[in-house]
Amino acid sequence: MRVVERLLFGMINSIVEWYRPGGREDATRLADDVIAVALDGLRVPAPAAR
């Protein structure tokens, strides 16, 4: 779990390095993408129905 914490914090903290308001990336879309990676990216897929 410690690795997950570090990866998430690294992803979020690095945004300030490259994000520029008014630039190519839309802030709302960026926030949605971060949430998707942080929450959905950690989800364990359900077993396929047979």
From TrEMBL:
Residues 2-42 form the HTH-type transcriptional repressor KstR2 C-terminal domain. InterPro entries: KstR2_TetR_C, Tet_transcr_reg_TetR-rel_C_sf. It comes from the Bacteria. Coiled coil: none annotated. Gene3D superfamilies: Tetracycline Repressor, domain 2. SUPFAM superfamilies: Tetracyclin repressor-like, C-terminal domain (SSF48498). This is HTH-type transcriptional repressor KstR2 C-terminal domain-containing protein. It comes from Agromyces marinus.
